[in-house]
Design a protein that fits this description.
Chain A is mainly beta. In chain A, 0% of the residues lie in helices and 52% in strands. Classes of the chains: A mainly beta, B mainly beta. Chains A and B meet through strand 4 and strand 5 of A and strand 6, strand 10 and strand 11 of B.
């Protein structure tokens, strides 16, 4: 596609349910990032992929969060047993190789946990 | 610890006035530095980036930023604000090595008054 695509754009779920957020990066981009944007909190780094490998998972808030990337392309962020504090906009970004190049951001997934 | 500090979560200027958005980083070595902008209801996009080629960096829409190593700062400026500049601005620092982690500040919301 022309840009980074994220789905769904909005997700409302009940506390305790699992959710999966999907990111389709720009074709050929090897670097992929997940961030969480909460009101007044800026962008919180979650995880970075280079190809299918995640050299840095230090930003994942808890063991309820996991992410994978397959085929060096699509990435899925999974949140298990969601909590109300997980409510935020989850942003995905990709770049051709490394983050010292321009990051291209998706429009995000607005997650609301009731 | 790696960090990025943006002073002032909200800045308001009059149309035609100078825009100054502050960013300080913590680093023992010159990093890569970025400013991203998020216009209302749009995704984040790159405004400008510093990669050690020149200390004064020019970006899109008349914005520029100056890297000052002695002050560990990378403040964003624009001589004359326009109504269309109203947006949220994020400073980001890339700490390289294996992690290639791009860390964002908490953002500054710029309002431009007529």
């Amino acid at each position: 596609g022309a840009g980074v695509s994220q789905s769904p754009s909005n997700k409302v779920t009940e506390k305790g349910k699992d959710v999966e957020l999907r990111c389709d990066p720009i074709s050929g981009h090897t670097a992929l990032y997940w961030y969480r944007q909460s009101l007044g909190q800026g962008l919180e780094f979650l995880i970075y992929f280079q190809g299918n490998s995640a050299p840095d998972k230090s930003g994942l808030p808890s063991d309820r969060f996991s992410a994978e990337r397959t085929g060096g392309s699509v990435s899925t962020l999974t949140i298990q047993r969601t909590q109300q504090e997980d409510s935020a906009v989850y942003l995905c970004a990709s770049s051709p190789s490394r983050a010292n190049e321009k990051l291209f951001f998706g429009s995000g997934t607005q997650l609301s946990v009731l | 610890a790696q960090s990025v500090t943006q002073l002032g979560s909200h800045v308001s200027v009059s149309e035609g006035a100078l825009v100054l958005l502050r960013c300080n980083y913590s680093s023992s070595v010159p990093p890569y530095l970025f400013w991203y902008v998020q216009y209302p209801n749009q995704g984040l996009q790159l405004l400008l980036k510093y990669t050690s080629a020149a200390t004064l960096v020019k970006g899109i829409n008349g914005f520029e930023a100056e890297f000052k190593k002695s002050e560990t700062s990378f403040h964003l400026t624009k001589p004359s604000a326009h109504m269309s500049d109203a947006a949220e601005y994020f400073c980001a620092v890339l700490y390289g090595g294996a992690t290639n982690k791009l860390i964002f500040g908490t953002g500054t919301l710029l309002a431009v008054q007529p």
